[in-house]
Amino acid sequence: MHVRRRNDRERNRPGVSLLEDFSEKTINLIGEKVKKLKKKGDVLVISIHWGKNWGYGVPAEQREFAQRLIDEAGVDIIHGHSSHHVKGIEVYRGKLIIYGCGDFMNDYEGIVGHKEFRPDLTLMYFVSMDPSSGKLTSLRMTPMQIKYFRLNYALREGELWMAETLSREGKEFGTRADALEDNTLGLECN
Predict the structure, then answer these.
(1) Closest CA to 175 of 163, 164, 184, 188
(2) Which of 40, 59, 117, 180 is most buried (CB neighbours < 10 A)?
C-alpha cells in the first residue's frame, strides 16, 4: 500500500492520501482534486481516518474541517472512521457527515476495558441521495452484532441501544435515530 504525501509525484499509483492537518492548504488541495475528478451527477465521498479511539466527543476542529470540505471543496459525504464505535451523525446543508462509523468487522472480541462503547455492535449504512444536488434524502442503518468473527443481525436490545446512542450523540448536530419496525434505524433531522 502506497501512502501519498502532499508532495508525491506518483499521481496514478493506487493508495491513500495522508491527511497531514486540517489547514486551509489541505482544504484547498482536496478542493483542487475534487474539481478535477467530480463530474455532473457524481456524489463525492471522502473517507477520513481521524480522531481518538474510545470516546464520543467530536472535536471542534474536526467538525469545522468536515463542514469546510462540504462548503469549499465540494464534498458530498464525509465518511469518518477510527473510533471503533459509532459517533454522532450530522446533516450539514443537506450533506451527510458520519463522524465515526464504527468497525464493521474487527478482532476485538475478548479485549476488555471498552464495554460501555459496545464494540460488538456495528451498522450497515444505506444512503439515498439526490444526485443532482448531492443532498441526503434518507439514511437507513441496519444494526449488526459481531460474534465469533461473524456478523449477525443485532437483537432488539442492540438495535435500541444503537438508536439511543446515536440520538444522544447526534443531539448536538440536530439528528436522532429512530428504531423502526423492520429492524433498521432511520436518521431524522430535528
Answers:
(1) 188
(2) 117
Residue 172, classed as helix, strand or coil, is helix
Strand order, beta sheet including 95-98 = 45-49, 77-81, 95-98, 89-92
Residue 96's domain comprises: 3-189
pLDDT digits (tens, 9 = 90+) for 148-171: 888 999 999 999 999 999 999 999
**Of 28-42, 74-88, 96-110, 132-146, minimum mean pLDDT range:** 96-110
The model carries a pTM of 0.90
Buried b (16+ CB within 10 A) or exposed e, 19-30: eeebeeebbebb
Distances (CA, A) of 122 to 21, 49, 142, 163, 176: 28, 17, 8, 12, 17
Nearest to 106 by CA among 49, 145, 78: 145
Q: Give me the number of domains the chain comprises.
A: 1
